[in-house]
């Protein structure tokens, strides 16, 4: 292994530009920790303060059945190029590409992280609490950066330097990118003293013989976002000879170019460097104006462009870009919005977009750049979106994308175009095609909860809520759950607005009584829709007083005990977590112990308990991990442990990673769990890209049945 590692390191040094350094930099934060996990000020806290329970003694996971195969082993969840497409893993459900955009579950799957807010909820609870002169630190707090650098990073680099399976390499690439940090690695094994950074390890795997590993490496460089990641991804996106050389191929495949675009989008969203944002945008504009035989690259470039946070005020780009033919699009968000309007054209004759998928992504991206700073431009964009949504010559994907975009741009309150957009969404709920009616309902909820202008900034909220409540009771069987969930989304966003702006009315003032939706939940017997009602009711109680949340929790707990269907039970568990219903702890924990062989239900129950806060959760999962007999069970527990963010899970997960008697699929999901556990950001890396998508127009690299980014954990 050491010989392999040294050879690879020498090759990397030979390929690296003169300015490259394996030591890396201090990262965007300006300190040596780079993308470290939550760190407290002052000296490091003791690993286990006196008076708190010690970490459980962890032994090796149980051995597989004779011959190495296991009952219930489903094979590679993240299989390489030679493997058939599989479920992406616990908590994720089936591949995105298999979900029907007409059903609410797809929308929730892509958007749920913002509402669950699991990581910040856990971190707020685990923060130090001062009691008199003594500090109390919970045993289930997140891992320290020192622990990550000493144990986790060397183990993951070891996976990449060894002859491991494609699925393990994929998981390790994403996990290392999540963790970040380019400083010297300390720890045991062949990496001691070599100071290997993460970036060279990611870059080396671009040349993997597996197309899937190579694509994953490109995305991982964007998630990592430091060092020369931008330059590497730009070469791949442009399909240059240098990019092909990085892959060890004669050319850069379209799928790899699409993954490079996604990586640039993640990189752009995560940086506060305006010049870097403009550099990324310039590369993406060049790509969009280069003819492509595939819809993958233009759609990916358009989605990535929407992640660039261009300045509101005109800001000159770096000197090298000032002669760019589209420099006016790079200097401000308004400039980019005008460029996109020009690309759409006023008719088919003058539009430069030929692919319906690219057009759908262009509409949702356009809404992100049309800001309040230029009111006339914003009004123009709203009119254009309404035109696109009502044009029956357009594909259903394009019309639906225009409705999604209106939900991102329109506001409540006074204003001719805003009021016209609200009325348009209300009308589309009644007259649109099935998919359009559902997206119109969700967009109406979002737009009516966005503060507008005038004396009453939320003048549309009550009427919108009334319309949604009516549809939740009297709409078609597939429309009712959308309306119920939309009610919760409206309340959630109204609560956020009232919390951040003094004088904004609280949700309870502008929404109908919460009791009505709870009554509907109590009477629900349809297991395919009860989840939407439960989540809607939970979000509707965001910011409610403890008594109201307690009453909601009682209704949800009764439904949880009554319902046996796993998927519905999982959504009810999340709802109980969202309202923080303490009396549900025992029921959820008992159900968890009985459901370890059901990966998705196990994840939902774990997240519900994590939101409520139960220190018994991690020890329970660790014990189950040791006793598990099947791959599916171990995988579910591993990802669930990562989602909770408890440092006590680090050692058992690493033990599973390093146990070569385990199937590679099991070890791969343990790596996923470690990566999630040690990730710094409050929301997963994919969250910004998954928000306000043209959900029905996704390409195969976004939501196909084989290696799509929204299925990567």
Automatic annotation (TrEMBL):
<keyword id="KW-0732">Signal</keyword>
<dbReference type="InterPro" id="IPR011989">
    <property type="entry name" value="ARM-like"/>
</dbReference>
<dbReference type="InterPro" id="IPR004155">
    <property type="entry name" value="PBS_lyase_HEAT"/>
</dbReference>
<protein>
    <recommendedName>
        <fullName>HEAT repeat protein</fullName>
    </recommendedName>
</protein>
<feature type="compositionally biased region" description="Gly residues">
    <location>
        <begin position="69"/>
        <end position="79"/>
    </location>
</feature>
<feature type="region of interest" description="Disordered">
    <location>
        <begin position="48"/>
        <end position="96"/>
    </location>
</feature>
<dbReference type="Pfam" id="PF13646">
    <property type="entry name" value="HEAT_2"/>
</dbReference>
<dbReference type="InterPro" id="IPR016024">
    <property type="entry name" value="ARM-type_fold"/>
</dbReference>
<feature type="signal peptide">
    <location>
        <begin position="1"/>
        <end position="22"/>
    </location>
</feature>
């Amino acid at each position: 292994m050491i010989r392999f590692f040294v050879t690879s390191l020498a090759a990397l040094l030979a390929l690296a530009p003169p300015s490259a350094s394996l030591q890396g930099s201090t990262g965007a934060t300006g300190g040596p920790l780079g993308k470290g996990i939550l760190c407290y000020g002052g000296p490091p806290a003791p690993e286990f303060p006196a008076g708190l329970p010690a970490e459980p003694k962890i032994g090796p996971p149980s051995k597989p059945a004779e011959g190495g195969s296991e009952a219930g082993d489903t094979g590679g969840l993240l299989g390489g190029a030679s493997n058939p497409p599989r479920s992406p893993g616990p908590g994720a459900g089936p591949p995105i590409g298999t979900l029907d955009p007409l059903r609410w579950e797809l929308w929730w799957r892509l958007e749920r992280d913002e509402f669950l807010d699991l990581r910040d909820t856990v971190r707020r609870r685990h923060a130090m609490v001062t009691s008199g002169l003594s500090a109390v630190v919970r045993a289930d707090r997140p891992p320290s950066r020192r622990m990550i650098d000493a144990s986790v990073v060397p183990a993951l680099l070891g996976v990449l330097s060894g002859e491991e399976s494609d699925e393990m390499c994929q998981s390790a690439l994403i996990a290392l990118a999540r963790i970040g940090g380019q400083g010297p690695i300390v720890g045991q094994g062949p990496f001691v003293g070599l100071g290997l950074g993460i970036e060279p390890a990611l870059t080396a795997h671009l040349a993997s013989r597996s197309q899937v590993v190579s694509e994953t490496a490109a995305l991982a460089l964007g998630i990592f976002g430091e060092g020369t990641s931008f330059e590497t991804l730009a070469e791949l996106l442009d399909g240059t000879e240098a990019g092909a050389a990085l892959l060890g191929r004669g050319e850069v495949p379209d799928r790899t170019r699409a993954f490079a675009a996604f990586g640039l989008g993640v990189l752009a969203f995560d940086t506060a460097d305006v010049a870097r944002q403009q550099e990324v945008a310039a590369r993406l504009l060049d790509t969009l104006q280069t003819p492509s035989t595939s819809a993958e690259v233009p759609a990916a470039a358009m989605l990535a462009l929407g992640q660039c946070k261009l300045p509101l005020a005109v800001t000159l780009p770096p000197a090298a870009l000032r002669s760019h033919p589209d420099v006016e699009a790079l200097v401000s968000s308004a400039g980019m919005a005008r460029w996109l309007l020009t690309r759409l054209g006023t008719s088919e004759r003058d539009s430069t977009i030929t692919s319906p998928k690219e057009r759908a992504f262009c509409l949702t991206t356009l809404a992100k750049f049309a800001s309040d700073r230029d009111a006339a431009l914003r009004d123009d964009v709203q009119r254009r979106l309404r035109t696109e949504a009502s044009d029956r010559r357009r594909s259903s994907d394009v019309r639906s994308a225009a409705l999604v975009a209106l939900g991102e741009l329109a506001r409540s309150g006074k204003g001719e175009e805003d009021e016209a957009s609200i009325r348009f969404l209300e009308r589309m709920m009644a007259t649109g095609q099935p998919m359009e009616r559902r997206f119109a309902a969700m967009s109406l909820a979002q737009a009516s909860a966005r503060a507008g202008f005038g004396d009453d900034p939320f003048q549309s909220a009550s009427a919108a809520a009334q319309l949604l409540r009516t549809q939740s009771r009297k709409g078609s069987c597939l429309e009712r759950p959308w309306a119920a969930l939309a009610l919760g989304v409206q309340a959630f966003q109204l609560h956020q607005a009232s919390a951040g702006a003094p004088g904004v009315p609280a949700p309870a003032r502008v929404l109908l009584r919460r009791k009505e939706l709870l009554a509907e939940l109590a009477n629900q017997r349809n297991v395919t829709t009860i989840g939407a009602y439960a989540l809607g009711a939970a979000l509707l109680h965001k910011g409610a007083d403890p008594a109201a949340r307690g009453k909601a929790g009682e209704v949800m707990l009764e439904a949880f005990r009554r319902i046996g269907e796993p998927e519905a039970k999982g959504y009810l568990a999340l709802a109980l977590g969202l309202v923080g219903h303490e009396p549900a702890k025992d029921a959820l924990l008992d159900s968890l112990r009985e459901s370890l062989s059901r990966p998705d239900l196990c994840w939902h129950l774990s997240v519900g308990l994590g939101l409520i806060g139960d220190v018994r959760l991690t020890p329970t999962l660790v014990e189950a991990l040791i006793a598990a007999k099947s791959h599916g069970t171990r995988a579910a527990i591993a990802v669930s442990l990562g989602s909770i963010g408890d440092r006590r899970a680090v050692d058992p997960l690493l033990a599973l990673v390093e146990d070569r008697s385990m199937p590679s699929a099991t070890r791969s999901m343990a790596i996923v769990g470690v990566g999630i556990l040690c990730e710094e950001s409050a929301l997963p890396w994919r969250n910004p890209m998954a928000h306000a998508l043209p959900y029905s127009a996704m390409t195969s690299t976004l939501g196909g049945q084989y290696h799509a980014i929204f299925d990567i954990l």
